[in-house]
Design goal:
The structure holds 2 protein chains of 2 kinds. Chain A is mostly beta strands. Chain A is built from no helices and 11 strands. Chain B is mostly beta strands.
């Protein structure tokens, strides 16, 4: 099946710093989503971005489908950005409709 | 749009008991998914429905697990004869389907088997 690798696994920042999270995937996809999982376990949708670039406030994401990677940018980080960030993809071929998740990047933003 | 809801939010049960979880998807989303997440891992796919039809099941879904989506609305996930290894967060998601594949997740049901 498709492989999803996220890096780095852990990231510690001071408030106000910028960061880049990476997601590599091993096959063509028709869906790529970035999520933030809060301390209560809720997965919050950040971006639906199978290709191209999107921005939402301090967050932006870019997916280069031909090179099979996606980047999530967090600017001017805040303590509330802490949590685990997941990348998840759905393959284009094979009829499988499921999201396959990476292992996540655990972000800690210190005041 | 009230989002995906799941009940109960927490469930503690003794080994060997049966448990049932409910998921209410976003209205008019015809696709509904179940995932399981253990500590320190990303969610893993269990099964999905398009309307009332169960179209795919993971190998993770042993014979003790069964899911239904009667009438294509809410869904239930039942685990029979629970084992300690079933302890996990069970997540439900829904999506509108073609042409938009984005999945929206509920808050999850945290199961603890003692």
């Amino acid at each position: 099946g498709i492989q999803v690798e996220q890096s780095p696994p852990d990231l510690i920042l001071q408030e106000g710093a910028n960061s880049t999270l990476r997601c590599n995937f091993s096959d063509s996809v028709n869906n790529l989503q970035w999520f933030h999982q809060n301390p209560w376990g809720q997965l919050i949708n950040l971006f639906y971005i199978p290709s191209g670039t999107k921005q939402n406030g301090r967050l932006s994401a870019t997916t280069v489908a031909t090179e099979r990677y996606s980047l999530l940018y967090i600017s001017s980080s805040q303590t509330t950005d802490s949590g685990v960030y997941f990348c998840a993809v759905e393959r284009t071929q094979g009829g499988s409709e499921k999201l396959v998740f990476g292992k996540g990047t655990k972000l800690t933003v210190n005041p | 749009d009230t989002g995906v809801s799941q009940n109960p939010r927490h469930k503690i049960t003794k080994r060997g008991q049966n448990v049932t979880f409910r998921c209410d998807p976003i209205s008019e989303h015809n696709r509904l998914y179940w995932y399981r997440q253990t500590l320190g891992q990303g969610p893993e796919f269990l099964t999905y429905f398009q309307n009332e039809a169960q179209l795919e099941k993971s190998r993770l879904l042993s014979d003790r697990f069964s899911a239904e989506r009667p009438k294509g609305s809410f869904s239930t996930l039942e685990i029979q004869r629970t084992e300690q290894g079933d302890s996990a967060m069970y997540l439900c998601a829904s999506s509108p389907g073609t042409p938009r594949w984005e999945q929206y997740f509920g808050p999850g049901t945290r199961l603890t088997v003692t």
